[in-house]
Amino acid sequence: MIRLLMVLTMAALGLTGADVTGKWSGTLSVAGESEKKPAFLVLKQEGTKITGTAGPRESEQFPVEDGTVENGHVTFRVPEHSMKFDLVQDGEELKGGITRDQGGEKQAAAIVVKREK
Asked: Is the pTM of this model over 0.70?
């Protein structure tokens, strides 16, 4: 029975990929702008669920909602700024895109953050 539980646990972990729990810092590039902006994420993974915060720096964070991870694909929302994150984990790096609707205008940005040690 214990062996079966261990096998099932390992199989479940394999579906989610590596754990994204931790602090992540890097930059985001808003489409149409040349200047890169800071990005900072604090994420906690429990199974396939992601919770935490996101913002431009550690001292300015906003709650994450509807966070999920599956096979290294991480998605979540930051409702306070109408942002949707769609990221892929590549080792100690998360990269992908952010989209939001602001005043009926769609905005997009690319983000690359690395896990802080």
From this structure: yes
